[in-house]
């Protein structure tokens, strides 16, 4: 008498994105959770700092500092920064108010970037006003998020970075800027400073996650 055949367990269904769902944590994987994991990564923060440094260096070394070029560089920087801040808004276990502040900062960056790209006829004063208001608003929102979220592993550094953005916004708004060359030099120096501060925050986050 032969032994009864054992039922063969069904193989996990293939995912439309490739691979089985079990291999990637099951069907409960949430796109918001994936955004949160990406935004919580120190590599994502480091990527944001590198992007800021690249635009800062471009503004300093580009030989043809015309008003149209300044508007395009500022617009591209604001769009890229908005994308990074949008993803970062979903990082960690943010409360609704903190996440709303992060998303609002991302929207401010994107809208300002679109305005700069669609309005090459903007004057130096308007461009300085746009970038100054963006840095000031995002810095205030970042400071609020750092104060409200006590679970941040690099809370003090995040607050200092927000204060640096506030100071940058005030400086750009208050200084009389009369030429594209002066504006690009000022913005280039501030972007490099902000990029270095973001890089320090990224490595501080890496250290905190390892411990």
From TrEMBL:
Residues 1-11 have a biased composition (Pro residues). Residues 18-27 have a biased composition (Low complexity). It holds the Pfam family DUF308. It comes from the Bacteria. The chain crosses the membrane at residues 44-62, 68-88, 100-120, 126-147, 159-181, 187-205. Residues 1-27 are annotated as: Disordered. InterPro entries: Acid_resist_chaperone_HdeD, DUF308_memb. This is HdeD family acid-resistance protein. GO terms for cellular component: plasma membrane. Keywords: Membrane, Transmembrane, Transmembrane helix.
């Amino acid at each position: 008498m032969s032994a009864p055949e054992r039922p063969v367990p069904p193989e996990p269904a293939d995912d439309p994105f490739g691979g089985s769902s079990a291999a990637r944590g099951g069907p409960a994987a949430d796109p918001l959770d994936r955004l949160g994991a990406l935004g919580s990564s120190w590599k994502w923060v480091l990527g944001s700092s590198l992007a800021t440094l690249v635009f800062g260096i471009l503004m300093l070394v580009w030989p043809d500092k015309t008003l149209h070029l300044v508007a395009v560089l500022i617009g591209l920087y604001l769009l890229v920064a908005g994308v990074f801040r949008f993803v970062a808004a979903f990082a960690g276990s943010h409360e609704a108010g903190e996440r709303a502040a992060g998303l609002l900062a991302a929207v401010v960056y994107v809208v300002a970037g679109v305005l700069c790209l669609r309005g090459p006829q903007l004057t130096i004063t308007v461009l300085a006003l746009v970038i100054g208001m963006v840095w000031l608003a995002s810095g205030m929102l970042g400071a609020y998020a750092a104060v409200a979220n006590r679970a941040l592993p690099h809370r003090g550094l995040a607050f200092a970075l927000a204060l640096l953005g506030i100071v940058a916004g005030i400086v750009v708004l208050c200084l009389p800027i009369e030429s594209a060359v002066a504006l690009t030099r000022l913005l280039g120096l501030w972007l490099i400073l902000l990029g270095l501060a973001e890089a320090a925050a990224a490595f501080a986050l890496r250290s905190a996650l390892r411990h």
